[in-house]
Amino acid sequence: MSSESLRIVWIYPDLLSTYGDRGNALILARRARQRGMPVEVLEVRSDERLPATADIYLVGGGEDGPQALGAQRLLADGGLHRAVAQGSVVFGVCAGYQLLGTSFFAKGVQCRGLELLDLQSDRGESRAVGELAGEIDPRLGLPPLTGFENHGGRTHLGPEVSPLARITAGVGNDGATEGAWRGKLLGTYSHGPALARNPALADLLLRWATGAHQLPPLEDTWSDRLRNERRSAVAAARA
């Protein structure tokens, strides 16, 4: 960790905060504190400098205009690039996932991304709305992904990143894969919030941030019930 406390930064909540993505910060903080870790959560607005010494950075979803403005300000700020160079964890959701790549479209205009992940996003023929599920890259050692998607983009991965998951329901990147990861950077189209629906993914980010090989187990009865309920709903819809 970068200090005695685990520092979690929620980037630009005034621009990038749709579908309850603030819940990702809450889940990370709670799961860390349940294990006795001191935690500091910083909400950094778009008119503030981004600290470059935190452990985990969260970038949420947003509409086209705020997404483009957020990318511009993050590029001008440079703090997230410095943090990544120092080994910090970055988790992007939906619009936040797209802007981690080389380019994305907002209001019909191609915009420059942060170029932190080898991917680019454009517009699909139809909007992807509904349950999202997939089998996560086995190298990450996680159970299947579950979430909710609502986006008009299609994301194309380059050779320097790996898909987070292979689609079993929904669209994700392109109907075949969902999300992407490289090193300690990970992005997904999954809302829900993503880390409430996928607590093992939250723990992966905590392990990356702390350097721990394993974390003490937690009581996940309620999140397991939620996951099972949504997975059953997906299965029923496909039957």
Automatic annotation (TrEMBL):
Name of this protein: Lipid II isoglutaminyl synthase (glutamine-hydrolyzing) subunit GatD
GO molecular function, one term: carbon-nitrogen ligase activity on lipid II
Keywords, alphabetical: Cell shape, Cell wall biogenesis/degradation, Glutamine amidotransferase, Hydrolase, Ligase, Peptidoglycan synthesis, Transferase
Pfam family, one: GATase_3
GO biological process: cell wall organization; cobalamin biosynthetic process; peptidoglycan biosynthetic process; regulation of cell shape
Ranges for domain CobB/CobQ-like glutamine amidotransferase: 7-198
Its biological purpose: The lipid II isoglutaminyl synthase complex catalyzes the formation of alpha-D-isoglutamine in the cell wall lipid II stem peptide. The GatD subunit catalyzes the hydrolysis of glutamine to glutamate and ammonia. The resulting ammonia molecule is channeled to the active site of MurT.
Gene it is expressed from: gatD
Involved pathway(s): Cell wall biogenesis; peptidoglycan biosynthesis
Organism: Micromonospora inaquosa
Catalytic activity: beta-D-GlcNAc-(1->4)-Mur2Ac(oyl-L-Ala-gamma-D-Glu-L-Lys-D-Ala-D-Ala)-di-trans,octa-cis-undecaprenyl diphosphate + L-glutamine + ATP + H2O = beta-D-GlcNAc-(1->4)-Mur2Ac(oyl-L-Ala-D-isoglutaminyl-L-Lys-D-Ala-D-Ala)-di-trans,octa-cis-undecaprenyl diphosphate + L-glutamate + ADP + phosphate + H(+); L-glutamine + H2O = L-glutamate + NH4(+)
Assigned EC number: 6.3.5.13, 3.5.1.2
Binding residue positions for substrate: 127
Protein family membership: Belongs to the CobB/CobQ family. GatD subfamily.
Subunit description: Forms a heterodimer with MurT.
Enzyme active site: 94 (nucleophile), 191
